Amino acid sequence: MLPHLVQNDGCTSYGPGHHVHWIHTKKCHQEPGQAVELLLTSGDIGADGWFGLRPAFDHAAELPRVWTHAPAALTELLTVHRGRVFWLPRWHALKLVDSAGRATALVNAGFEGGPLCATTAPDPRRTVGGTSYGL
Fold first, then answer.
1. Which of 2, 34, 110, 130 could form a disulfide with 16, with the two C-beta atoms 3.0–4.6 Å apart?
2. Dihedrals φ, ψ of 72, to 5°?
3. Span between the terminal Cα atoms of the chain, in Å
4. Whole-angstrom Cα distance, residue 71 to residue 18?
5. Strands across the sheet with 84-88, in order?
6. 8 A C-beta contact, residue 44 and residue 51
């Protein structure tokens, strides 16, 4: 079973950089579009939630700087992750993949940061097909 990735911070927002909605997850799996492999480690995530995306290989376009409302959870996830990380620009999402090629986590990344959080408690169990989708 995958670790529980959602910080119980009271946020229920599905806006950019917040929780991943099940429809967002479905679209990322069914229609991923271009996927750019990244060099991303736990040390890249700022305490304020901002981090830059660096391509693992030559990439023609500049990659954005993005934000997550749960930087501690993403840092912890990347600390134990032993696979590959992909940027799905069409869906503003990070997809973490294990050594067997299975998606293990999906992270919603925003282009704007800030306290855009809703305040009703989220559903604590957010998984689809064994994939966590809750940062």
1. 110
2. -65, -40
3. 16
4. 11
5. 36-38, 84-88, 93-97, 103-108, 131-132, 127-128
6. yes
CA distance 105 to 81: 10
Instruction: Kindly tell me the burial class for residue 111, based on how many C-beta atoms sit within 10 Å of its own C-beta (0-12, 13-18, 19 or more).
Output: exposed
Query: Distance (Å, rounded) from C-alpha 74 to C-alpha 6?
Result: 10
Residue matched to tokens 């967002």? 24
Q: Per residue in 12-53, pLDDT tens?
A: 788 888 888 888 888 988 998 999 999 999 999 999 999 999
pTM over 0.85: no
Closest CA to 5 of 103, 127, 129: 127
